[in-house]
Amino acid sequence: MDFSHIDEGHTEGDDAMVFRYNREERLAHAPKIVQDYYAGKMQIGSRGIFKSLVATRGNRFMLFSVIICAAAMTFMWYFCPSKSEDVLNHVPVQLSAFSFDDTVYVTLTFSEPGKKYEEGSQFPVEVTFNFNNVDGQLAHEEKITTKYAGKKELVRTTFKDYDIIEVTAVLKTGEQEKVLSQKVQKQ
Is 182 exposed, middle or buried (0-12, 13-18, 19+ CB in 10 A)? Predict the structure, then answer.
């Protein structure tokens, strides 16, 4: 393309800017690899992603570090259950707690059971909430009795104290007893 007819690169009244560029002259002084690249003689092979990942010692170290971290996270996810979740009579139960304006809000969620356990999944539950303060001492205890009716159900309570750092819920139904604990999230 010829851009010589376009007048730009200077203000009105000034001479046009002259740009001298000779590609052949520049390539004549370039290294051999650059000349081969521009001539199309250079072979650029696609190495593949795995070869790139293990090409140098540093790349191998980083690849194996990522693999070990992924394996550790997967192991922890499968074999180390959360202290705030459990199953009571085939019903998943989850405890959550957060603090806002000197009040601790606690929610105990009973989810729906699996399809094969839906029949007869109604049962009474006695929930004891223990509010622990900064020293690890019991600051308040609250008991709530509810009946799980086979569908998602929430049991909520609040407590006015800013120093609560952990909430423990003891769930009792018949012979079964489960203990859930959750750190209070400050918001």
Answer: buried
Of all helices (H) and strands (E), which one includes residue 110? strand 103-110
Place of tokens 């989850």: 94
Q: What is the pTM of this model?
A: 0.57
Per DSSP, the three-state class of 116 is helix
Neighbouring CB atoms inside 10 A of 108's CB total 25
- Residues 14-68 have pLDDT tens digits of 776 666 777 888 888 889 888 888 888 877 766 788 888 888 999 999 999 999 9
Helices marked H in the chain: 23-28, 32-39, 49-53, 57-79
Pairwise CA distance, residues 164 & 139, whole Å: 8
Tokens of 55: 């090409």
Angle at Cα 158 formed by Cα 157 and Cα 160, nearest 5°? 160
